[in-house]
């Protein structure tokens, strides 16, 4: 009987061990800027430094700055033709094209009904996911028609982070991780076990807990640990299967093996 118990325990531990995902080191490059936003498939860097948004490729660097709106709270370059910058102090979003020219400016103070926005993320077509602090709801907001296409039910927990793609939005709160579709319907809810930041990649989700990363595969509720060396993680993001980890000195590149 004792042998059967040992066999069972060994089998259980083996299953747990198989749930981790390998991340193979590729290279690291010096990087010393305030906030890294992302890197596209061509190696173009998007980042914020001294309240200025930068787009830097192999040939040139272009910038956008709007000091009248205060500090940039967040930025998203998932769609390089519609880069969005959020200025929370002025309740305003600026949409830029690939030359960082301003193409839309959404001042939520002037929109009726008034929206007190604290988080935004990319949406499909001409929309943004916005979190309305007053109603405690996520909204799919059409910034061309200045109307809301969909709303979620109220969320009763403190918001920590948000990420999205054209079809889905993930919301991280102190209590749970929520996944919503484009119609505002809740698809998945998972208890937050200490995660503080999230990033989307091809409908999958990467989560950060202290200086470790975890992987939540599309259509799954099982979170798997990503094997990386002990490293300070100030920021991270994912492009396709490349994980970028910034530790305030270097940008580390890792190849993620999910299969």
Description:
With 259 residues, this protein is mainly beta. The protein has 1 helix and 24 strands. The protein has an 8-stranded mixed beta sheet, with no helix packed on it. A 4-stranded antiparallel beta sheet has the order 2-3-4-5, with no helix packed on it. A 4-stranded antiparallel beta sheet has the order 6-7-8-9, with no helix packed on it. A hairpin with a 6-residue loop joins strand 20 (212-216) and strand 21 (223-227). The two termini are 36 Å apart.
Give the low-pLDDT segments. Answer: 1-18
Taken from the alpha-carbon principal axes, the silhouette is globular
Q: Beta-strand percentage? A: over 45%
Mean model confidence by pLDDT: 90
**Structural class of the secondary elements?**
mainly beta
Strands, total number: 24
């Amino acid at each position: 009987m004792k042998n059967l118990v040992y066999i069972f325990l060994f089998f259980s531990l083996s299953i747990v061990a198989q749930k981790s995902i390998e991340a193979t080191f590729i290279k690291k490059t010096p990087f010393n800027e305030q906030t890294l936003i992302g890197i596209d498939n061509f190696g173009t860097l998007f980042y914020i430094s001294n309240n200025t948004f930068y787009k830097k490729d192999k040939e040139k660097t272009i910038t956008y700055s709007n000091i009248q709106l205060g500090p940039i709270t967040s930025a998203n370059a998932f769609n390089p033709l519609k880069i969005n910058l959020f200025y929370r102090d002025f309740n305003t979003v600026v949409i830029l094209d690939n030359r960082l020219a301003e193409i839309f400016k959404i001042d939520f103070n002037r929109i009726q009904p008034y929206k007190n926005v604290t988080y935004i993320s990319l949406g499909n077509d001409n929309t943004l996911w916005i979190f309305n602090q007053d109603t405690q709801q996520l909204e799919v907001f059409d910034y061309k028609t200045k109307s809301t296409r969909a709303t979620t039910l109220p969320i009763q927990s403190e918001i920590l982070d948000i990420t999205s793609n054209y079809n889905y939005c993930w919301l991280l709160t102190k209590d749970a991780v929520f996944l919503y579709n484009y119609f505002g319907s809740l698809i998945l809810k998972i208890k937050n076990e200490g995660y503080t930041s999230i990033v989307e990649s091809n409908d999958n989700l990467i989560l950060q807990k202290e200086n470790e990363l975890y992987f939540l595969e599309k259509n799954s509720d099982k979170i798997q640990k990503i094997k990386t060396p002990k490293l300070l993680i100030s920021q991270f993001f994912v492009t396709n299967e490349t994980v970028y980890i910034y530790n305030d000195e270097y940008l580390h590149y890792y190849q993620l093996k999910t299969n």
